[in-house]
Structure to design on (384 residues):
């Protein structure tokens, strides 16, 4: 369950162990698998918001067609990730609240800017000052039937241009100096596990886009490929490939921007057990780490499963505490009862000093966590 190269890296880490491990080979393998499921003409972008670590973004920049960013900081990281590559990294810039400085930086970088509103379009043209600005209009369609944990379109959200306003905003784009309307952006959902439904969504998006009558070079259908953190469900790439087979020729080029599915399985969060205790009938492992490093389980309200990495050696002149055959809660070092990564996982054996290793932690782990709460030291970042 814990790959040998990951286990070896953790055994060599500073004690008490608190670390993220990222596997670049796993990133490349996942990118290859996703690309093989997409139509040959489609573009695959990595959504940097999932994990912006330089080694992760840099590895994927070499393995996909470009990077999707959502802030000026991510844009700077994307440009750095492309340094030394034979071709410039293709960049798409998203987000509902772009500043003038971010818009200017995106124009300077030659990014495709996913415009979220009429006002943002006018601001972009003003900031660009006549320079060429390549855009896609992000549309919040009136319906977008796709399952997932976070719905972004087809409902009232802060994202995109209301479908009823698309014709008006597209006409404005044609009037503003320097604006090149290249496509539409239809990212609809996060963490969908139904690959066949995703293929139907793409087909529906293509049909809908054709019905707009706009001369489009590209149709960005976003990402949203899901990860099941607690069960055995998998986003079935074979079902996606079958569902996208035989798409009609011509029309705009499809663009996919995927984050979670590319990065999650290539990362592990690991934290050493500092204490074992039983209170009110429950066993707790108290970790050197917690939700300030790996916030996703607390944010989504689920128990993230772990594996136990046994560690040799015990430097104290008293017995080493251990539990066996019990249900264990994995709690962190923070002064809040909500600092729990997993509840009630049955373990064969855990000792103080062993390491709990949480898989599928390569996306929306460190990047979304509240790092500085209580000012504990950051985890080590280990790349294998």
């Amino acid at each position: 369950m814990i790959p040998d190269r990951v286990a070896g890296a953790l055994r060599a880490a500073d004690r008490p162990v608190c670390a993220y491990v990222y596997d670049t080979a796993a990133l490349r393998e996942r990118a290859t698998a996703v690309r093989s499921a997409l139509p040959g003409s489609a573009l695959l972008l990595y959504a940097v918001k999932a994990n912006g670590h330089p080694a992760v973004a840099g590895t994927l920049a070499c393995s996909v067609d470009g990077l999707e960013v959502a802030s000026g900081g991510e844009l700077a990281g994307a440009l750095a990730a492309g340094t030394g590559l034979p071709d410039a990294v293709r960049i798409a810039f998203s987000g509902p609240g772009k500043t003038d400085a971010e818009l200017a930086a995106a124009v300077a970088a030659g990014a495709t800017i996913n415009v979220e509103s009429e006002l943002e379009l006018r601001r972009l043209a003003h900031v660009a000052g006549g320079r060429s600005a390549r855009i896609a209009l992000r549309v919040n369609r009136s319906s977008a039937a796709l399952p997932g944990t976070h719905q972004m379109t087809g409902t009232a959200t802060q994202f995109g241009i209301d479908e009823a306003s698309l014709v008006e905003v597209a006409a404005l784009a044609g009037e503003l100096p320097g604006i090149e309307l290249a496509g539409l952006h239809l990212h609809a959902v996060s963490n969908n596990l139904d690959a066949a439904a995703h293929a139907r969504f793409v087909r529906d998006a293509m049909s809908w886009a054709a019905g707009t009558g706009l001369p489009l070079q590209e149709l960005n259908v976003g990402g949203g490929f899901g990860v099941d953190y607690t069960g055995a469900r998998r986003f079935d790439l074979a079902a996606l490939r079958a569902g996208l087979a035989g798409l009609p020729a011509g029309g705009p080029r499809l663009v996919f921007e995927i984050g979670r599915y590319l990065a999650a399985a290539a990362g592990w969060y690991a934290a050493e057990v500092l204490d074992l205790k039983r209170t009110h009938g429950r066993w707790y492992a108290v970790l050197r780490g917690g939700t300030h490093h790996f916030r996703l389980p607390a944010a989504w309200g689920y128990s993230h499963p772990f594996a136990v990495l046994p560690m040799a050696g015990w430097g104290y002149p008293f017995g080493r505490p251990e539990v066996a055959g019990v249900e264990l809660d994995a709690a962190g070092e923070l002064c809040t009862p909500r600092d729990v990564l997993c509840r009630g996982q049955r373990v064969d054996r855990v000792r103080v000093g062993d390491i709990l290793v949480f898989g599928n932690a390569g996306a929306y782990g460190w990047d979304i966590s509240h790092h500085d709460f209580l000012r504990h030291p950051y985890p080590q970042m280990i790349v294998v």
Notes: The domain at 4-19+265-383 is CATH 2.40.37.10 (Lyase, Ornithine Decarboxylase; Chain A, domain 1). The first strand starts at residue 18 and ends at 22. The chain has two domains: 4-19+265-383, 52-258. The first helix runs from residue 4 to 11.
